[in-house]
Amino acid sequence: RVHGDRNIRDLCTTMPIDPSTITAEEQERLAILKADTRFQNLNDTILMCFVRAKPTLQETIKMLEGHVKWREEWKPDQITMDDIPNALPSGCWRVVGLSRDNNPVLLIQAKLWNPQDYTIQEYVRYVAWWQETALRQHAPGVYQNIVIFDMEGWALSHAYYMNYIAQLVNAAQNQYPETMRFIFFVNVHWLFQTSWNVISGWLDKNTVSKIRFLKADQRTQVLLEYISEDVLPAAYGGQAPTPPCPNVPGIDNVELRSSVLKNK
Fold first, then answer.
1. Which of 70, 176, 166 is nearest to 130 (CA)?
2. What proportions of the chain, in percent to the nearest 5, are helix, strand and coil?
3. Do 33 and 60 contact (CB within 8 A), yes or no?
């Protein structure tokens, strides 16, 4: 567990951006942000992610100001498994393994989502815990994740929790920008289309550019391009079993439990 905002810098040193990929303009903006005492607790890589998320320095500063306030409110680096007792055991989110390029691969399964079991506050903590946990798993030179959203089991009742999804979008897009390499949607049912029409309106161009909806006849080929057979679960065309939850090195797995599984 990481305590205190001062350790955000230590947390992020495991995921440096390759200096050769940083442009002169980005370097100039980074220097300005590093000199700003409001952002002194944020590592260079986190600052660079925000630089790349917005086209101008002014927009980047505004975004970072919001991020600092969000960290002060939610203290994401201090969230533990005990703080998400109803969300984590659902098994909705779990780590599959590492991609061919060492990006952590997260699997999110709609059929296991149980928002009726917890408050929106716990959901924010849940998403933040996963984001912070993913940061700690990055190998040197890697700072992005790959996410597989399996939409099988999306129900009309899920649409009543769009305010929860708005918090997920906020975290991924505004609090941890540029940490997603790809977002793959699979097993998308027509029931999801109405909800997607709303969700897509919340997304900026950077986020949209990372999203791919995979049809059944292309799913395996595309996923195997980025994830090896021994890592990709068999349900998606690989050879690996479905992983436990959370399946994070150094963290105990949990027994799945929720109202969806009818064992809560």
1. 176
2. 50, 10, 35
3. yes
> The tokens of 202 are what?
């919340």
Exposed (0-12), middle (13-18) or buried (19+): which is 148, by Cβ within 10 Å?
A: buried
Q: Distance between CA atoms of 147 and 29, rounded to whole angstroms?
A: 29
Given the DSSP bridges, would you call strands 93-98 and 104-109 parallel, antiparallel or unpaired?
A: antiparallel
Q: Which amino acid is at 238?
A: G
- Tens of pLDDT, residues 131-174: 999 888 777 778 899 999 999 999 999 999 999 999 999 999 99
**Placement of tokens 């903006």 in the chain:** 29
Write out the two tokens for 214.
Answer: 């995979």
How far apart are alpha carbons 85 and 80 in whole angstroms?
10
Q: Is 181 helix (H, G, I), strand (E, B) or coil?
A: strand
